[in-house]
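[Automated response] Your request has been received and processed.

Submitted sequence:
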Amino acid sequence: MASMPIKLKNSDKAVVDGVAYQLYPKKMEAKVIRSDTLYNGVVVLPDSVAVDSLVYRVVEIDSKAFSKSDLSSIEIPASVTKIGVGAFEECNSLTEITIPPTVTDLGVGLFVGCKNLETVNLPGNLQKIPTNTFMKCTTLQTIDLPNNLKEIGISAFEGCTDLKEIKMPGSMNELGRDVFKDCTNLKDVELNSGLKTIGSGAFEHCVSLKSIELPKSMSKIAADLFNGCAGLQEVNIPNSIKEVGNSAFEGCADLKEIVLPSSISSLGTSVFEDCTSLQTMSIPSGIDKIPANAFNGCSSLESLTISYTVKSISHDAFKDCSHLDSLYIPNAVREIGSSALEGCTNLRRVQLSNAIKELPTRLFRGCSNLDGVTIPNSVLEIKDDVFRDCASLSSIVIPVSVKKLGNDVFKNCPSLQEITMRSSSPPRISGDTFDKDVLRSATLYVPITEAYQGEKEKRWTKFSNMVRIKKQ
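Generated structure:
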C-alpha cells in the first residue's frame, strides 16, 4: 500500500497527459486520482510520470478514480499493485479490461454497474475477488477465474444476467453470500472438490440452472441457496451435509425428486416450499423436526415417508400438498402445528401418532376427500376449524380422552352423518363446534343419553338425532 504524503500541498498533485495524480515525494510514488473533469475515451497509464524533473512510479489507482466516466479502454501498467474501491464503477462504455499480475489488492465494487463489460482478464495470482466486484455487469458472459483464487466475496457477480457458466478453480474455499444471485442465464456451474462454504442466497433466482453437484467438502446448505431456481431439476447432496437452511430450495418449481442423505439432522423453515413438481420425499432418520412451511405448496407431492425419529411437525408443514393421498405419522411425533395438512384436497386417509395431545387449529381444513381418520386416545383437545370444509368426511369417533372441542370444528362438512362419542362425560364445546346442517342431519351416538341432555349440556341438545350406543 502506498504511504501518505508528508504534507498535502497543491504541489503534491499534478495532471500529466490528461491524467490526475496524487504524488508521494517521500517514496517517489504516484496514485491515479479522480480528475476535475470525467475521463473519456482511451486512457493509457504510464508506469511512471515526470513532474518538475522528478520521476514518480505509478503504483495505485485511487477509489472512484474513473467512476461514472465515459472510459472506453484503459491500459494499466505492471507498476500498479493496488486498485481502490469502485475505481471503475458505472463505466458504461468499458467493454474489456486486463488487470496486470502485479495487482494483488482489488477494491470493493470495482466494476459495479459496468453494463457493457464483456471481457475481464484477472491476475493469475489473485486470491480474492472482493464484495460487489462485478455486480450488475449485465453483459458479462464468461470469466476465467485465476488458479490461485480462494474466495469470491458477497454479491461479487450478483445481477450478471448474461453470465452463462462458471468453473471454480481447485483452490477455492469460499463463495460469499448472494455471489451469483439473479444471474438468470447461468446454466453451467462446476464446483471444486475442496470448496467448504457457499453463502446464503449464492444461486438465488438462477432460473436457468438445471443441475448442480455439491462437493463432499461441504457440511451445510445455506439459507436461500437455490431459492427461486425455477429450472433446477437435479441436485446431488453428499453425505457430508448435516444441515439444510431456511428456504434453501424454495420455489424450485421443476425439482421432481431429491434424495436427502441420512447425515442431515436439521431442515430449515420453508426448505421445499412451492416446489410444485416434487413428487416423492423421504425424511431421513437423523431429523427430529419437520419445520414450518417445509413442503407448503408442494402440489405434486404424492409419496411422503416420515422417519420414526421425527418428534414434531410444525405449522403449515404440508399445507396445500394437493396430490398427497395418504399419510402415516409415526408414534414418535408428539406435536403437530396448526394447518399442517390444510388444503391437502386429495388426502383420503391419515394415521395419526398415538402421542399427540391435541389436534391443532385448521389441521385438516379443506381436506375435501378426507374420509379415513382415527383420533388417537391421547388427544385431549380438538382445536378450532380442524375438520372445516372436509366435504367427504362421513363419520368420526371422538375418544374418551377428549375434553374440549373448539369453534367451527365441523363447519361445512355436508357428508358427516355419524358422530360417535366415547366419553360418558360430555366434552366442552362451543355454540358453533358443529355446523347447523350437521346438528340437523347427523346422528350423535353417545354412551349415556342423559349425560348429553342435562341442563348444563344445552349445546349438545341441539342435535336432532341422539342415539345411545348399545353395550358391546
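Summary generated for your ticket: The first strand starts at residue 13 and ends at 16. Helices lie at 436-441.
If you did not submit this request, please reply to this message.
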